[in-house]
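sorry for the late reply, my laptop died twice this morning and i had to redo everyting from scratch. anyway the thing you sent over, i finally got around to it. pasting the sequence first so we're on the same page, its 510 residues, then the predicted structure underneath. double check i copied it right bc i was rushing
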Amino acid sequence: MFLSKFIDELPIPPVLKPRRKDHLYTYYKVKMTQFKQSIHSELPDTTVWGYEGSYPGPTFEVESGERVYIKWSNNLPPTHLLPIDHTVHGAHTDVPDVRTVVHVHGASVESDSDGYPEAWFTKGFEQVGPYFRKKVYQYDNNMRACTLWYHDHTLGITRLNVYAGLAGFYLIRNHRERLLNLPNGKYEIPLIIQDKTFNKDGSLYYPTQPRKPVPELETSIVPTFIGDTILVNGKVWPYLNVEPRKYRFRLLNGSNSRFYNIKLDSGQLIYQIGTDGGLMEYPIGVREIMLSPAERADVIIDFTNLEGKNVIMINDAPTPFPSGVPVDENTSIVMQFKVTLPLSCIDTSAIPANLVSLPKINEQAASKKRYLYFNMNTDKFGRPLMLLENKHWDDPITENPKLGATEIWYLINASPDSHPMHLHLIHFQIIDRRDFDVEKFNKEGIIQYTGPSIPPEAQERGWKDTVRANPYQVTRIIMKFGPYIGLYVWHCHVLEHEDYEMMRPYIVIK
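ok and here's the structure:
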């Protein structure tokens, strides 16, 4: 299907107003509903799901340390928009098809408010999952200023709920960041990048079968979902009119499976100032930024002296990453910036030489090392099944860090694809990556390194909650567990993998 590029303006999600706010706490009420929205002006309106009648959902803006309560409520119809595979864990026929639970991705939050995959609820909380504990979630936001996002996390149907539209930004701000004089107000714009495929009638297309169909099943999960159309903030290939000045963009890869390697066709530098977990020590000028699903990058793009020019944001990451199919003339295009607006006032914003101090966690501080491997199996239908530690979701919990303990996790990827690994509750630092002898590991379970230690890329040197575990490498991350105890999860953020067993619970114990 041919759709013209750059004919629709980039929408900017509204900032959500709280129902109540005083010096003690802030209270929001957020409904999930089904509605129609224009995704591209050459397509009929698309039925989507969203928070507060908006896809993507409205943006939360909160302060570090602000106590926030959110009542998430499900007002969705009883029938799912998309095809459900009832052979997938958590999505069997004994649970309602339409159920939701919200996870604020990257938030340090008590376990009962984290959006545990089995804490789901239906319309009016009529039915709830076995781990459902409360209707109103509490977020203490005891974190540095950072770019988080919120999305659905329901066991067995996360990929469908997020693809239907259940995602939005959650920004934490603080005084220290304001003093840096970064571009702000209308010069600071969040960008959620996603890929989708549409039917001719404008409806969302999601496959009912993998490329090699499973004849026994009417609907089967697919190993990855790759859309043929790129959307930013819910619009296909939009444009944004900008002034010839600096802008701050919060980039988020909100796709199910697609990786993005973001560049500007002008060849100019992108100044990265932050990672998943907040500001970096100092800005870096880069020509490209790699984002795996769920990763964020906080960047400044300078349009000064580009009056009358158009700058296109492009992508060249193959799918699946890193050795899959190259992008085509459509999937290589993200959006366009048109430097057409007159300068409304002199640009006094800055790209400071230094941002924040970022003490490195000392490896010697780690009281435990965990060796965690991923491997590819097949299920009884011959479908690929990616497992962590060769264990299923329901197997007994094996990761039980102590509150306050520092650990190093060795993520051992013996598969040919890169997996974006996400841990709930904490932020970590990447230590290094290293090639290893996969054959020897598979046969004898021994890690024999075949190359030197590769430090994290410049764009990853900061606080992270999602890391690319590259194929045939051991990726080491270090983190301190806390400040809460209880049940959390770690998983691959390729949603098709996460939904089909590539997720494990872990528990922080006293």
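The mean pLDDT is 97.
thats about all i looked at so far, will dig more tmrw
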